Please model this.
Amino acid sequence: MTKKPIVLVVIALSASLIAADDYDRPPIRYSDSQPADSIASLSVRMNKQEVNLQHYGGQGYLPSLLEALGISRSSQILVFSKTSLQRQRINPRKPRALYFNDHVTIGFCQSGDVLEITAADRNLGTVFYTLDQEKFARPVFKRETERCLICHGASATQGFPGHMIRSVATDQTGELLLSRGSRRVDHATPLEERWGGWYVTGTVENHRHMGNMFFNSRFEADTPENGKTIALENVIKGSEYLEPGSDIVALMVLEHQLEAHNRLVRANYLTRMALAEQAEVNRLMGSPANYRSEGITRRIERACEPVVEYLLFSGEAKLSGRVTGTSDFAKAFESLGPFDSKRRTLRTFDLRTRMFQHPMSYVVYSELFDGLPSEARNRIYKRFWEILALKKEDGRYRHLSFEDRNAILEIMRETKNNLPEYWNKKPS
Ligand code: HEC
Model:
């Protein structure tokens, strides 16, 4: 046997874009593995008749599903661009509504055929489902492994099954002005470039943004509201939404969360693929099962670094004025905790100079984080410790003051399970 084919495999899999047949093969087996996410457990409860989803006229199963999953109505945000699955149902008078919590996002269209659902699974990452909006005696969730991934598993998500949230320019009908292009949005996107195609209720001082705006073919703003607060209830009058607004704070939280999930899923897949490849090489070479080459270790480290940067808000867009929402989303979100003995939580908002008071993401408590292979989780903890406690850093974490670092370390020690032992020592 020669070494050549092994080298080729290593090169092929280390590219950052992966293809569907990569994640449908071992070790991920995306399509034929059984998920264990919030929708899977709700299905079990429905089968045992512990939960029965109710159907209400125009809203179908939406209100009942939100209640069953504990998703607050105040998380409602509205997107009017015709950019997703049921595009023909979407327009500025009938925008698509999204609702979310830490684990699940639900898309609802007026007169839509289905509710569109993404759920976080600790092994499979982002899992897609639909729920038929027609009334059935026993509604069932359908796992979707193909049609959603046409968009949610393509270049926009680097080929991994993932979330999408974008800012686009549309005309008065919500139709995309293609030549203007679109941009992916996360917490690093400058506010000036955000929210094209979305309704935004609430205010942000000292920033313009593209929310609530339509454009003409010359890309001039073609709208009276011009990025200011709008009287949304007049625009969507007569339609059946659960809330009157599209809260700016909810929108910012979802943008933060979706990219955090995408990065966790990529770190998970890439680490498991690297480890599986090492196991195969060890088997072929007769090396000890726990042997790990430099190259594989580097690959795992590289897969984890985007998570470290993102969860510590490196590169977050700076706010130059106060952001104020219109619903009770912010209050409900903060009250979820967990809290330390000084009543501090990573969920406390700042919303004057940055999103959160303590720049360590609450996503650290998620199933996706805890479900990372231990090799990846340990690496991420080590990097957090180096940055927060040992202050080893290269400029990417200058936004973290001495007080920020200490507060994060203290809150994490009291609220995060299974921290490595060394987190309880005083840094030397
Ligand atoms: C034609 C491309 C396309 C297809 C197909 C598609 N989506 Fe999406 N989806 C989008 C885009 C674009 C967004 C970003 C928000 C927007 O522009 O409406 C999105 C956003 C979402 C969101 C909210 C953000 C997130 O990623 O969680 C959910 C939930 C969602 N889609 C579920 C689904 C499900 C379930 C399917 C399959 C049944 C599906 N989508 C199929 C384009 C698509």
In short: The CA atoms of residues 16 and 158 lie 7 Å apart. The chain has a mean pLDDT of 91. The pocket of heme C is lined by residues 79, 81, 83-85, 96, 98, 105, 107, 116-118, 128, 130, 144, 147-148, 150-152, 163-166, 258 (CB under 6 Å). The two ends are 50 Å apart (CA to CA).
